[in-house]
Amino acid sequence: MKNLYLLLTILPTLLSAQERPGIFFREEFKETPAEIPVTQNHIASPDLLITLHGPGADVIKKSHHDKPADDPFYIWSGLCEGNWAVSLKHRSQNVDLSRAAKIRWRSKQSGYRQLRLILKLSDGTWLVSDQYDGDSKDWRVYEFNISDIRWMTLNIETILEMKPIENPDLSNVVELGWTDLMRGGGSDASSRLDWIEVDGFSVAR
User: Is there a domain that residue 152 lies in?
Assistant: First the structure.
């Protein structure tokens, strides 16, 4: 009876742990010289496709500097003359972000820039998160708990937030990415993203 009691006590915890998703993808971008714009050639993972969106898309930069020595190979918005966004899509799988999903990235923003998540749902709807990673004087890792986020619809052509959407179905997400909903303003007013990692369940497409 004692062993049965222990099993019944720990079983919910074991089941909960099994339901937590693993890494769906991680993208760190290739360590290549700076170039405008960022393209598929800069994507390290063979499973991912990149798309640039918005009026500022043509000058989203794959950036890097020789100094400081630890400067990463990152995506930079400083030259964008209009709103912009970047999204990544797995070649063969969608992702379920409805169950204990998380997204992490390493970034650095300046000049009131607030880097937000964007998602494309299976019905074609684009969303942008209310939560954001704000300005910082140095690189830092930020984690989003997807279940804590409230969403607004996003016009993917203009990269403008539209209206709130209650309880969107995140069980079949086609693409995901990031934007700060602003044009670039050089080094003093821009967003930078070094890498991104997504925890979610794979969904057959």
Answer: yes
Q: Pairing relation of β-strands 140-145 and 102-109?
A: antiparallel
Instruction: Give the amino acid at 178.
Output: W
Q: Which residue has the tokens 């959407």?
A: 165
Question: pTM of the entire structure?
Answer: 0.89
pLDDT at 6 over 70: no
Q: How far apart are CA 113 and CA 127, in angstroms?
A: 18
Which amino acid is residue 148, in one-letter code? D
Single-letter amino acid code for the residue at 106: R
Range of the domain at 156: 24-204
Q: Show the tokens assigned to 67.
A: 């100094």
Q: How many domains does the chain have?
A: 1
* Cis ω before 21 (30° cut-off from 0): no
Q: Looking at residue 127, which CATH number applies to its domain?
A: 2.60.120.430
